[in-house]
């Protein structure tokens, strides 16, 4: 790998992290809370174009949670994003009718499970008498729906847009 390529990958990481943070903070009412559609999560599909995007998305998630959420979310939200991006990268070449739908599922599943449990355990609803397992499932479904909108809809559209536009493909595709 030449130095020019390394600098380009570093710039990609920084650019993606910055975009993630800006989207979360600019769309704050949608980005944080039990019911959320974090538009920035569409960026979780960028590892389809190269492993360096994993670092950019995870760094962006870490910083966005550090600036706008709780320390618990800094830890578990960032973990969910890391795991999601790693598996998304592994699924980068899987297509359904030309769409990266399989790559969009890890963010949905990891966030639904990890953040669903996080919300139920760390921020229980004091007015509810539901058992903890039911709260985990209910919160997981809520988080999962938001992730489907962010990743399976917006993220898949983002990947398709990049793949079908020569100028964007030149900017994003590194492998």
UniProtKB/TrEMBL annotation:
Coiled coil: none
Keyword Membrane part of the UniProt annotation: yes
InterPro entries: QueT
Record keywords, A-Z: Membrane, Transmembrane, Transmembrane helix
Keyword Transmembrane helix: yes
Residue spans crossing the bilayer: 57-87, 99-120, 132-159
Alphabetized Pfam families for the sequence: QueT
Protein known as: QueT transporter family protein
Protein source organism: Faecalibacterium tardum
């Amino acid at each position: 790998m030449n130095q020019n390529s390394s600098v380009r990958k570093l710039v990609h990481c920084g650019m993606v992290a910055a975009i993630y943070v800006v989207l979360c903070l600019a769309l704050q009412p949608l980005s944080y809370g039990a019911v959320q559609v974090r538009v920035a999560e569409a960026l979780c599909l960028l590892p389809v174009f190269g492993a360096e995007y994993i670092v950019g998305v995870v760094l962006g998630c870490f910083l966005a949670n550090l600036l706008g959420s709780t320390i618990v979310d800094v830890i578990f939200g960032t973990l969910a994003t890391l795991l999601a991006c790693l598996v998304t990268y592994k699924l980068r070449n899987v297509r359904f009718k030309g769409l990266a739908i399989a790559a969009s599922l890890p963010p949905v599943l990891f966030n639904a499970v990890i953040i669903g449990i996080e919300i139920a355990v760390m921020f229980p609803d004091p007015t509810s008498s539901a058992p903890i397992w039911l709260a985990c499932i209910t919160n997981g479904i809520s988080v999962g729906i938001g992730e489907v909108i962010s990743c399976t809809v917006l993220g898949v559209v983002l990947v398709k847009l990049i793949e079908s536009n020569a100028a964007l493909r030149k900017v994003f595709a590194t492998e």
